[in-house]
Amino acid sequence: MKNENHYQYGVAIMQLSAMQSGERGTVLAYGAGQKAYRQRLLAMGLMPGTVFTVVRVAPLGDPYELTLRGYTLSLRKHEAAMLLVEPVR
């Protein structure tokens, strides 16, 4: 999936790596990738239904800084690309 919105059942689905600073979203699912990354994301609290805010994105897009569940988390660009999210408007 490229960095563009897709719609399924009326829900906009995009990769986390397509979001900008200050945007909010909800984790919907995981995209294709290694199982170890998915387990790492789950261990960090990024499970489906989790609401987060993108605090900042580094100039070259790596890393992403998110706030969720009362803490701050940084993700590499390839980890952010694995997360399929719904923007919260």
Model description:
With 89 residues, the protein is of the alpha+beta class. Helix content is 17%, strand content 43%. It has helices at 35-43, 77-82; strands at residues 6-8, 11-15, 24-30, 51-57, 64-68, 71-75, 83-88. A seven-stranded antiparallel sheet has the order 1-2-7-3-4-5-6. The protein is globular, with a radius of gyration of 12 Å.
In short:
The chain is an alpha+beta fold and 89 residues long.
The total count of helices amounts to 2
Average pLDDT for all residues: 87
Q: Provide the spatial order of strands within the biggest beta sheet.
A: 1-2-7-3-4-5-6
Radius of gyration: 12 Å
Q: Tell me roughly what share of residues is in helical segments.
A: 10-25%
Residue fraction in strands: 35-45%
Which structural class should the secondary elements be placed in? alpha+beta
Largest sheet: 7 strands, antiparallel
Distance between the termini: 22 Å
Task: Please outline the helices and strands.
Blueprint: E1 6-8, E2 11-15, E3 24-30, H1 35-43, E4 51-57, E5 64-68, E6 71-75, H2 77-82, E7 83-88
Sum up the structure in keywords:
89 residues; alpha+beta; seven-stranded antiparallel sheet; 2 helices; 7 strands; 43% strand; globular
